[in-house]
Known about the structure:
The protein is of the alpha/beta class. It is 44% helix and 17% strand. The strands form two sheets. A seven-stranded parallel sheet has the order 3-2-1-4-5-6-7, with helices on both faces. Strand 6 (134-137), helix 6 (140-144) and strand 7 (151-152) form a beta-alpha-beta unit. Helix 3 packs across helix 4 and helix 4 (87-100) packs parallel to helix 5.
Amino acid sequence: MSLHDWIIFQLIDSRNSGGIETHILNLSGWLKRQGYQTRIIFINDYGPHPLKDQLDEAGIEWQTSEGWYSLYKLLRHHPAMLATHGYKAGILGRITARLARVPVVSTYHAGDLGEGRLRLYSMLDTLSAPLANQVISVSPEIANRLSCDCNQLPNFVSTGGYRQNKGKKIAFVGRLSHEKGPDCFAQITATLSSACKSTSKPDEHTEVAVFGDGPMREALQDHYPHLHFHGQVDMQDHWDDVGLLCITSRCEGLPLVALEAMSRGIPVVSFAIGALPQLIQHEKNGWLIPPQNFILFQKVIQHWQQSTATDRSCISLMAYQTIRQRFSCDVVGPKIIDVYRQALPALAQMAERS
């Protein structure tokens, strides 16, 4: 029996779209193209969900679990392995898989442990990592906090052919919450906006755009009128308008939004945190800034604004090539399959090698 004969269940608890959801969509699509059986399991049904629509469009099976016992019965009645994503899916999935005696692989995506109840769940998720047969982390910081052997594999995205980026918006894309640092982005660009007004013509101003929603939105809108808020949107409809992506997070793993931008030739300027230094080569395919250095961050944005079309074209191509060569589905997908195979029972591993 080979891995192609097993159903790979991907377990998630999700209310909205984000990095984990994009990861699952990309991974499931790649698995299907390679001939593997995969199905997405939502722990809870929160009603309409963008990921469900995307899975339907891609022809990928999904269903909602009706509690842990429903998941247990599902795992017991198929030659199956379980892949978990996120803290709730991880905690529930590892315990259920152990009871059902099926292999389980847990992927750790989040670089931030959160606060309050979220921090408690994150700690339980971290402490229970050894229950998995195999563990994947997307950054060294995440791997270091786990008390078990860990496979460090980067996030990845689907890539198409290269198109030169011609967008002009300076953008923040993500949840408007403290760990993502939208307030840092607002402060950096507010000062930048003031400097531009004293030296530039009005029609030379670049829109400073915020894509996403979250608990900090109202305060940001009240204090930073220079920001243009687009809300929670499908970025597929907006990437063409973005010229520069700014990542001002206080903590990160390897954000998928950076990979998505670079796969479209959009360069990224980011604080040097998490696994971003593994992705970005300073002044070659993007820019890395020491954490919380707002002045240098602003200077890089100004440099990008003043750069020539040729300079922008060069860094755009380098950003795309980085993703194509190191962070695409076809590069990372086979490595994930290797981890899945290692999680299979010994008998299945022997059959796989025969």
